[in-house]
Structure formats: C-alpha cells, structure tokens
Amino acid sequence: MSSPSKKTLSVDTVSLIVSVGLFVFTARWFTRTERQRRELGLWGARKNIPSHGGGATGNSRTHQNNAANQGSVAEGAIGSRGLVALDTPRVAYLEDFMYCLHNACDHIRNPTGHIGMCVAENKLILDVLAERLMQIGTATAAFSDSTVYCYNSFLGLPVARDAVAYFLAKRFLLSDDVVEPEVALQHIQPHHVAMASGCAAVLHYLFFILGEQGECCLIPAPYYAAFDSDMKSLAGIEPFGFQMANATLGPTEQDLNLAYIEAMSKGLTPRFVLLTNPNNPLGVVYKPQVLRDTIQWARKRNLHTIVDEIHALSTHGANPFGQQQQHISSSKQQQHTQRGSQSSYPPHHNLSGLQGNSNNNHDGSFQSVIKVLNNELGNDVHMVWALSKDFGASGLRVGVLYSQNENFMRALLASNISIFSCVSGPIQYVVSELLTDDAFIDQFLEESQERLRRSYEICVLKLEEMVVPFVPAEAGLFVYVDFSSLLPQKTFEWERKLSELMFTHARIVLTPGETMKERTPGNFRICYAWVSCEVLEIAMERLSRLIGKVRRMDWSDLDERTLVGIL
C-alpha cells in the first residue's frame, strides 16, 4: 500500500510544481507586459508636452496625468501638478532674453551684442545703492545681532516691520519733510505690515488666504505678464484681463461692469480687482478718483481690491523735459497720420510725449491708495510694494504688504505659508537701516528720477524722430510703443514676426503686447532702464534702421541680405 501512495504523492507534487511554475510565468509575463504598456503610455504622454509650453488639449492633459500616476519614480514620472506646470506656456520672450544675458551688448567691448529691454529693472541707479549698502557699518549691523541667525516671525523681524511702517508713513501717507518715527508708527502700525520675498510672494499671500481656487481676479489690460503665474500657480486664482474704453485713464464703472458680467458668463466668480499704480506697462499714473471709484465699485460686490504700487517712487511727471519740447514742429505731428502710424490708444494719448501732454488730464503726480483713502483701507483694500523697481534691487527679494485686515494677518501667520517665502534675517536688517535713512533716500530718489528722465528722453526723442506713436510715460521704467503700422495684417502672428525681426536682425528684445493681454497687435514695451544710456542709444539706433527698412520694403523681401547694416 505504500508504493501507490508514494507514486500518488509524487504526481501531486509534480502537478503542484507545474502549477506554481505556470503561475509565476504568467505573473511575470503580465507584469512585464503591463510595465511596457505603461511605459509606452507615459512616453506617449510626454511626447505630447510642448518643449516650451503650449496648448495641450484637455484629453491629452488627462492622459498625461494618468501616465504620471502609473509611471515609476525611476522612470522620471511626476505628479499631475508637475505636468500642468510643464504644460503652462512660458513667457514668449524669455528664451531670447536669456540669450541676451550671454551675449550682452557693451558700448565698448561688445557693441554688436544683444540688448534685452523686456524686463522692468532699474539698472541705472545700482552704483548709488551699492555704495550705500557696502558701508562697513551696514554689514556689521546686519550680522552682529544674534536675532538674524534664529527663528523669528516669518512675516518680518520687529525692527524690519517697524522700519517698513515708518517708510510707508513718510513716503506714501504723510509726505512731510520731517516725520518723527513715533508719529509715523501711530499712522502705519507694524502689525499691519508683512514682508516676503518680492511682490509675487506678497500677492500669493493675498490670493491664497482670501480667495478660493477657481475664483478670478479682474485686471485692467494690458497688464504685467507675470501676474498670471503670480495668482494661478499656487493659489489657483484665474486671471481675468479686461479691456477699457481708455486704458490710459484707468477703469470706469462701465468697464468694470462689463468685465464682471463677462467673467460670470464664463463661469468665473470674481473675488479680486488688481490695479497697478503707476501702471505697468503704460507708465501712466491713475488719478485718485479712479482709485476711489474702483474701490467703491468693488465694495458693492464684496470684492477685495489690491493695489500694486511697486513703481510708486519712480515718477517723473507728465512733462519731464519742461520747455525742451517746444522745438517739435506741428508738421512732425502730422506725419503720424500721413504714414499710417496712428496709435491704437485714444487721440489725446497717442503720438509723442514731447507735446507736453497738454491734453492728458493728468498732472503726473502720484498718490498712494493709503493717502487717497486717508489710511482707512478697511478689510478689503490691500497695498503691495517692493524694493525691486524703485531701488533697483529685485535680487534682494524684499516685498511689502500693508493690510488692515486683522483676520487675514492672523490667518497668514497661523497658516505658516510665509515660511516658504520669508526674507532672510541679514537682508531685513540691511533694509531696516536703508528705509530709515531719510537723508540718503531723499538723495537717492532724486538721482534715480533724474537718471530715469535722461534715459526716457533718449528713448522718446528717437521715437519722435522715427515718427512712432507711444503713450507718454509719467512713471515707471518703460515706455509703451505702437508699431502696429509696420504689420501687413493686424494679427498677433505678425506681431510675433516683428519680434523675431527685432531679435534676429537688430538683436533687440522688447516686451510684446500679446504677453500683456493687449487687444491690438503691434504694441510693445521698451524697458529703457535695463541698460545704460550708451547701450540705449545703440538700441534705439538699431531700431530706427530696422523700422526704416520695414517701411520701405515688402515683408517678403526682408532677409539677411536686405537687412544688412542694422547692427
């Protein structure tokens, strides 16, 4: 009886071994096949992601997200948020600008180099700022206090928030020659002040704490191109640019009503209104009544109003050159119409800034929203500023928020999101000393405004010579120019072709209007303060030669042979 038993056991054992083997083989085959399928799916999804952003369809984005969830870390898979980031279109001129950095024009060492005038930075005043900050006492104070090495409020060190409060009171609210610190701090209270690594971080605070994902922010267009990412990337607030009857005068009640209705019709709920004053890219200063009316309109609809005043101290008035402008002849003005170069902006704002701006209805003076509202901002008005423009110090990464909304400030502190974008302790100490040095700031701002006027004059005099319309700038680091008459067809495709001509043959990069939600193709922003006066003259001369050839020739004939001699 034992032999059959052993034989049966042997058969069972063999069957078991065969079954296990088949199972293992099948499992391995299935796993390998599934992995290959997923890898192919992931590769196919990535293949559809444009290298420089672009318009992926909703289906392809879903496919990308599914592939990301299925792929392995070793294969380089990223999450859905990462894929959305990859799918976000990059700023059109960014690559060209980066190229300019590697082959920058120098009027002595590299006069044929590239010139980037698409970034609003004030490089004209850096020598004055650097000399002040390199003083031994400044550096010693910044590193000798032990508090800069330790954890503190991520909204700012007490000494820094006190300094910012004093600065805002003196420069934005009171505007008196002499303001005692204790008086200033009675007006602007330090606990209403927060610091962050630039205005973008400050705006993120506001959108993240006060808004809900999917709500929108109404922004008068054209507007600063990076606002889109400032509000959308992390907070999930949708930017909604709207056009105005007269962009240089600011939004009216009718403009705002139409924008609100249009946003709602597209399924977006407005939560914010964002104003930039002085305006970027137009360079105009809004009248106080424009601010009051916009805030009143927003309050009726329970919206927050954010006022970005990052160019507040870079003003040069509506007629910065005084009586110099009288030599411009009326025949020169008429050439604009004769040569088809009428600006897309209303007649009293087009053509040249050298006409004294007599019909502008602006006096060019700036008033902060803090002063306009007599420092009664309430819970719904918030002001932002930074060192980036007025002090030419975007690399220091210091932004300022002033809000009287106690709940917002408490939530900002409690959420701890400021840990991701706080300002380093030593820099806060440097800034606190800088912002309370009244004698230096008086001298610095006067020198800065003078240098800005000088460069602005170089720019607009050449534009006048070229018979090119532009919006007369009252503030800021740029001038808004209308090249639409050069386009064979008024489309953004032709605007992009003009940009390519400028980069390829004149080696110049300007900010295209399309990136700033401009409604009329052919408008560009020239950031004249990004380069020295000498390089600016080279740039404007190249631009003049290019425009001359574009006007004389058919676009089909514009090539390396016909455009020789521009550099």
TrEMBL record:
Molecular function terms from GO: pyridoxal phosphate binding; transaminase activity
Presence of keyword Transmembrane: yes
Highest taxon, organism lineage: Eukaryota
Region annotated Disordered, chain positions: 318-358
Signal peptide: none
Entry keywords, A to Z: Membrane, Pyridoxal phosphate, Transmembrane, Transmembrane helix
Oxidoreductase listed as a keyword: no
Biased composition (Low complexity): 323-338, 349-358
A GO biological-process term: amino acid metabolic process
InterPro entries: Aminotransferase_I/II_large, Ethylene_sulfur-biosynth, PyrdxlP-dep_Trfase, PyrdxlP-dep_Trfase_major, PyrdxlP-dep_Trfase_small
Transmembrane segments: 13-30
Domain Aminotransferase class I/classII large as annotated: residue spans: 125-543
Stated name of the protein: Probable inactive 1-aminocyclopropane-1-carboxylate synthase-like protein 2
Lineage: Eukaryota, Sar, Stramenopiles, Ochrophyta, Bacillariophyta
